[in-house]
Known about the structure:
192 residues; 17% strand
Amino acid sequence: MGSYSEPYYNICDRKITKFVTEKHLKAEPDRKKRAEECGAMVRERILAYGEDCLWNADQSGFEYEMRPGRTLDFVGAKHVLALTQSQNSMTHSYTVMMCVSPGVRKFLPVLFITLQEPKGVFGPLVKKSMFKAGNLYVTASTSGKMTKQLYIEWCVKAFFPQMNQHCIFLADSWPMFADQGAVDEVKPEELE
């Protein structure tokens, strides 16, 4: 017999992508049960209200200038330089919050964008010269990433105004999405 890494056993050397505790493994059956219950609830609601009530949102972060981590240079080079448009574009980012549905209305008509600004707000010159469009809602944060307050603002300005009576909002496990109490405070009463 050969070693376990032989293709015969369908085992190979792999990079570890995540470390988990024993607690994580013990919670697996409960997690699977909750996922099945959630799936059943979503199917029930879709049957009752149609696919237009189902929405999924996620945020995508982008850097203004993508940078490679590696390049080619002569063997033994001590410093490897790469050209950039500006140093600022290498460290600044922005976030787009996209919301989709399998129903007739495939996307929310308003795209929520969070830009990075040093003080977390736009200065008067930026406000004055910023491109404006009816389908964009542009905000700022110090990191260019969504915050809890910006998530609530997204709910109020971009999401809730587009919902009709019934809504199923599916989101990932980002902690801001999990704060149902904060969302309930700003949710219109007529929205279920």
